[in-house]
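We emphasize that the prediction below concerns an isolated chain of 127 residues; any contacts that depend on oligomerization or on bound cofactors are therefore not represented. The input was used exactly as deposited, without trimming of termini.
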Amino acid sequence: MTIKLIQQYIYERDTWCRLLDYLEEENILYKNRIANILKSDSDSLLIEMIESFLNKFVMEDAIISILRHDIAKANIKIVAKGKDFGKDGNSTDIIITQDKLRGEIEIIEQQFNRLKFEFNKYLSKAS
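Result of the prediction step, given as a token string:
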């Protein structure tokens, strides 16, 4: 492992944290939108579907929180290895964790975008 790889991992971590901040903010906006819809609409079918979407947005909050925790744990491992990062093959777990996180970040971003699209599509049809 080189210093360049450590720098890359740190850059990825920072990028992921910014993405999670953005997803969290978007999620708040959508949950507020749902709250406004639930306040103003009495159609029971609409309310049932909207509550279903609300549950999905709440689940996204939980996933974001778990990912933040996992990213922080991975960062602690990288910092703890310090100058010994990569020596004697002792960083395999960090590489595996980084690859796993990379995949999970990609999945949550896709899931969240799909959820927003489905929600907006549903509201367009319900209007």
